[in-house]
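agent> Task received from the user: take the single chain below, predict its 3D structure, and emit structure tokens. No templates, no multimer pairing.
agent> Plan: (1) validate residues, (2) run structure prediction, (3) serialize to tokens, (4) report one or two observations.
agent> Step 1 OK, no nonstandard residues flagged.
tool_call: predict_structure(input=
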Amino acid sequence: MYRFLCMLLLACLAAQPSWADKKNEELCWGFVHAGNRALWRYEPTQAWEQYHKARLIALELEDDFLYAHSLLGLGQAIWYTGRFHEAADTVRLSVKYFRRARAKMDQATALRILSNIYDDIGDYESAFKTTTEGLELYKGSKNNFNYVLSLVQMGALYRSMGDFETALAYYRRAEQLGPTRAEYPYRELYHRMGELYAAMGRTEEAKGFYARALEGNAGRKLVRMRLGNLYLQEKNYDLAFRYFDSLHKEARRITDINIIIGSMLGLGKVYLVRHQLDSALKMTYGSLEQSSQGGARQPRQKAYELLAEIYEAKGDNSRALAYHKQQEALKDSIVTDNFRRKMFSFRQEAEAERLKGQRNVLVLCIAGVCILGLFAFFIISLRYKNENLSLQQRAAELEMKSLRAQMNPHFIFNCLSSINHFILNEESDKASEYLTRFSRLIRTVLVNAGKTTVTLEEELAMLRLYLNMEQLRFKEAFDYSIEFEPGVEPSMIFVPSFILQPFCENAIWHGLLHKDGKGRLSIHFSMKNDVLVCTIKDNGIGRERAAAYKSAPVEKVASFGNRLSAERLALFNDDLSGASFVTEDIRNSEGEVAGTSVILKIKNKQVHD
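)
tool_result: status=success, residues=609
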């Protein structure tokens, strides 16, 4: 019996941590806290050294919880140096060890940080997935600090894809949790709300949110970057330059890669406006180099877009076209991620809300539209790859393909968002009506995909479907009419396919949606000397006021579509002088701008390709 008790006592003593282990554990935590302080001072190299020391001790102690904390710190330090993919791998490993240690709240925190890194890379599907996992872990907890930040991150992801309504709903949920004034979650919430309102063109409200975001940290560089972009949006170029220039100098001293990328891009835009093209190129190439090294796709796409604009201003059209094609290719890859991300978010929302009887309908609708949309893109792409046309015809087809690549994904996302909205609000009749119209439009696109020309009757059938859907989505914010003068036979006249929709989309997005009150769009056809004249008029805000909104990504799509359509029309008419396309302001009796008129001239060739 005595021998048994001695053995039991020795076993208990062996199970207790030794004095040396306790000291090592305290030392490890000391290194972690020192790394945290270095990160707050934005000293990523020093932070990495502290976290690395902590990691070695945690390995020796075989302590999963300490090891996970050291990995999380290492991942953030690597992120701050602009090595995004390496940072994502490290933080993802920390999530694994937090899960092994059953540290639920720390795991959720690591998922939130991982989502931010994926967002910087442009991997939106992974960003959505990790944020959703983190929000599930926070349910029922009292950890408002990180719960607020996770809700804000989800809202930021929706904002980046253009779903402003859902983004604002997440920000409001975060606001209801009552983040402490001037603390980081409070500042991040209002920084993101300022970013959202700036994207919606409500710049004064955005400035108010940015002011709240600077409380407690007036020198915060990312918010100052947003203010620089806001003043650029308002065409206050001198003030925008002061923000970008000071940020660029500060960021270079401490090697803050994200701020270096953004400030150089901002300076490039200001130099372009000032026609200092060599300086604009220098800054934009610098931003492109930094973003390419770190694997950040969004800034790289913006750099390609700006380079195309600079070379166009320099008159170097070949380089401008080359960079524009690179920007389009990169945008297509980001759009694909956006598409998958939207699908994922719909599924998660349906499961979370447990809508009675709607979940299966929603998944089937989304899957059906997804397959139909992908099939449409596959057919169109395959069609144009196999055609062997002359140089001029091929140029026209490539431009048309580029135009569709901008219209179709954007339009599909809007349709999916509208269908989701109707279903979640149990408006099944409207959801069914909208889905039916959308299916008819896709079928029309597929039918006309292989045609260079279609009859005016076919073109107007597709156009009416598009306009009816926009009316339903924007709750009858505008009316439209289509009129013909005597002598115009739509079934006997051939026009370039998809030629009218970009001009109507331009009128709606640039003119009518920014107008107070009911909008009106009229489309009139007449025949003069065997030339079809199409006049598209709107009673919107006019070209000058519309230019102020063009910094938003959605606004830029329509103007580029118009330019491509004008070039296709010139090729169709065998007229490169530009006389086929004229845009004019409509003025009232007092000389004030009362809308915009676009006049298209289409040669009546009486042939069908």
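agent> Step 4: summary for the user.
Residues 425 and 439 are 21 Å apart (CA to CA).
agent> Done.
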